[in-house]
Amino acid sequence: MLSVNPNLTAAQLKTIIQNTAKHTGTFDPQGNEVLLLDAFRAVQQAQPPSGTFLSFTEGNPGLPGDGILITAESSGQFFNEFVLTTPVPLGQATDGITITVFPGTGVSNFGNAGFDITTTASAPCSVQFGSATGPTGQVVFNGVTGVFTNVPLSTLLFDLSFANFVANIQHPGCVLTLSDLQIQTLDMFTVFATPITSLDAASISLGQNAFPGTRIQ
Predict the structure, then answer these.
(1) How many whole angstroms separate alpha carbon 120 and alpha carbon 136?
(2) 209/185 same-domain check
């Protein structure tokens, strides 16, 4: 169980084992039912939330390792970015989010994954800006190595504060909430600040350490 989710606590491990055990109908002298360990179900339930793999206007890369790669925008407003087909809303990100990216083959010296935030508010309170944070760790899915980044609620609230600051420069009186923010694009860079323009797969999940696959670092 810890091999698929090393972040589980002792209490969480106990709960999963109890919840997935099979009932036998047999009771001990104290009246407690004797349960039969179901290792397969326990490991299945121990896996962290995988999130949904994302689709982009540049194409749908599908799952890691499926042989489908997409290339970032080569010009225009979203130069060197991957534009989400459906923006990811942040209104329910009360424990932050986890961004997991699987860069295309041959990518080394991964630096960070960034994202562009836009607002659902109409003009003059609409804003767009970029945000980024360093990677948290590495995961493997279908034999492909990816990088996940925990974006805590504190970072999203800082982004919200910045969005309100910019909106109020444009039009005093704008009041934005987290429900007004959404992620529009993803981008990736090496440690040398070189854009990574090939993507195998990506996911965004609610909560921390909510990555697909197994953590390896």
Answers:
(1) 29
(2) yes
pLDDT for the residue 4: 67
Asked if 177 contacts 92 with a C-beta cutoff of 8 angstroms, the reply is no
Q: Which domain holds residue 89?
A: 52-215
Residue 88, both tokens: 């990811």
Is the domain of 14 the same as that of 111?
no
So what's the pLDDT on residue 85?
94
Q: For a pLDDT cut of 70, what percent of the chain falls above it?
A: 94
Cβ-based neighbours of 129, under 8 Å, separated by 6 or more: 116, 117, 159, 162, 163, 166
E strand or H helix at 36: strand 33-36
Measure the CA–CA gap between 115 and 76, rounded to whole angstroms.
16
Q: Is the dihedral of CA 67, 51, 10, 93 positive or negative?
A: positive
DSSP-assigned beta bridge partners for residue 98: 150, 205
Q: How many domains does the chain have?
A: 2
Statement: the pTM of the whole predicted model exceeds 0.70: yes
Count of positions (residues) in the chain: 217
Burial class, 65, CB count within 10 angstroms (exposed 0-12 / middle 13-18 / buried 19+)? middle
Q: With a cut of 70, say whether residue 51 has pLDDT above it.
A: no
pLDDT tens digits, one per residue of 104-117? 877 778 889 999 99
Q: What is the DSSP letter of 49?
A: P
Both tokens of 5, joined, read 């989710």
74 shares a domain with 37: no
